[in-house]
């Protein structure tokens, strides 16, 4: 079975004009992606942002659930958030995974508008297993991961598509994470 790490990237991100930007962390993404990641067995969930004010916000939210009173109120949330941390960059997240696993992770990226891709989740898992590497699965915020991140990735996942007859395709990142995590589980069963 492939080890999985999840990262929600807030920088480098593109806006709707393809400019390089940094997006803000949202409380829902912290909680919901932590819970989904924990449910599907990810070893850790990284929230990637270089902004120190955002680090303080994330750490304040995580700290709230570490306290006895709040953890006792909702121990499942406390458990999930124990596998979550904020980190400065994608490179730092990859270094942390290497520190834990002893090998560089396979950097796998997602996006709704890739012009080309390398395959499905099962293909990424096969590659990771052959190479004996964990996966660091990157999700973008805003209008997606900046081009340099996509271009330097080891594997680009096939975009998720719905069934809207008019081509509408704009899932929340929380929904996309849950779907890809379920596909990861299926690929490893």
Kindly describe this structure:
The protein is α/β, with parallel strands linked by helices and 189 residues long. The protein has one domain (4-188): SPOUT methyltransferase, trefoil knot domain (Alpha/beta knot, 3-Layer(aba) Sandwich). Helices cover 46% and strands 16% of the residues. A six-stranded parallel beta sheet has the order 5-4-1-7-6-8, with helices on both faces. Helix 6 packs across helix 8 (173-188). The model has no long low-confidence stretch (mean pLDDT 91).
Key features of this structure:
single chain, about 190 residues, alpha/beta, Alpha/beta knot, six-stranded parallel sheet, two-stranded antiparallel ribbon, 8 strands, globular
SSE diagram, text form:
Layout: E1 4-9, E2 13-14, E3 20-21, H1 27-39, E4 44-48, H2 52-66, H3 68-73, H4 75-81, E5 84-87, H5 90-101, E6 106-109, H6 121-131, E7 135-140, H7 147-152, E8 155-156, H8 173-188
Parallel strand pairs: 1-4, 1-7, 4-5, 6-7, 6-8
Antiparallel strand pairs: 2-3
Helix pairs in contact: 1-4, 1-8, 6-8
At the third CATH level, what is the topology name? Alpha/beta knot
Q: What portion of residues belong to β-strands? A: 15-25%
CATH superfamily: SPOUT methyltransferase, trefoil knot domain
Q: Which CATH architecture is right?
A: 3-Layer(aba) Sandwich
Gyration radius, in Å: 16 Å
User: What strand order characterises the main sheet?
Assistant: 5-4-1-7-6-8
For the record, the CATH class is: Alpha Beta
Strands, count: 8
Measured as a percent range, the helix fraction is 40-55%
Mean pLDDT: 91
User: What is the overall silhouette?
Assistant: globular
Total domains:
1
Roughly how many Å apart are the termini? 8 Å
Low-confidence stretches: none
Number of helical segments? 8
């Amino acid at each position: 079975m492939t080890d999985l790490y999840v990262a929600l990237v807030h920088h480098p991100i593109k806006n709707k004009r393809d400019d390089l930007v940094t997006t803000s962390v949202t409380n829902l993404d912290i909680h919901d992606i932590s819970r989904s990641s924990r449910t599907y067995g990810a070893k850790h969930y990284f929230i990637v942002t270089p902004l120190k004010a955002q680090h303080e916000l994330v750490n304040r939210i995580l700290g709230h659930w570490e306290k006895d009173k709040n953890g006792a109120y909702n121990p499942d949330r406390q458990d999930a958030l124990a596998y979550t941390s904020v980190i400065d960059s994608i490179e730092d997240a990859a270094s942390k995974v290497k520190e834990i696993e002893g090998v560089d992770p396979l950097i796998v990226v997602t996006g709704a508008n890739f012009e080309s891709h390398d395959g499905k989740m099962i293909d990424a898992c096969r590659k990771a297993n052959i190479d004996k590497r964990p996966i660091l699965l990157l999700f973008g915020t805003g209008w997606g991961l900046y081009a340099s991140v996509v271009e330097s990735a080891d594997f680009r996942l096939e975009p998720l598509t719905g069934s809207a007859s008019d081509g509408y395709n704009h899932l929340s990142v929380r929904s996309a994470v849950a779907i890809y995590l379920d596909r990861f589980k299926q690929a490893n069963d």
